[in-house]
Amino acid sequence: MRKMLVAVLGPCGAVAAATIGFIWWERGAPPGFNPTPHPVTVSSINRENRGVRIRGTAHYEVRLRQKMEDGSVYYIFPLMKAEDTLGREIKVLVRAERMPDAMTTYEDMEVDGLARPPGTKVGPKTRESLLDGGYHFAEGYVLVEAFAIRD
What we know:
Elements: H1 2-27, E1 38-40, E2 51-59, E3 64-67, E4 73-80, E5 89-96, E6 106-116, H2 124-132, E7 136-150
Parallel strand pairs: 1-2, 5-7
Antiparallel strand pairs: 2-4, 2-6, 3-4, 4-5, 6-7
């Protein structure tokens, strides 16, 4: 009986440990927790970062709203160097639950979030909308999924 339990629970435990380990490695924190944000700049951020604290100017010229199948809504916008309202090269794209004010075009802010490759969270329609709005993407641009936004 004991051997049978070990034979069944051993592989299940190994799979669970491997899954938790992968999520921890990929996010920089255990499942259910956010990684500690470390200060980076718009020009120094890269896809190897995990928890970041980044300061810059949000561009809301192209207003993008993303509704997920579970009903959650996200707003996507480029974040440029602080006080840069003329830049058009996107190095950082922010995905946040906070809706930008309808009357605001640019906003200086500090974002705590998880930096990662954009993957499927930035689809072709999002890219096309930003390209049509006069922006272009830097090679290796980063998506920051915001935990908190401070003005």
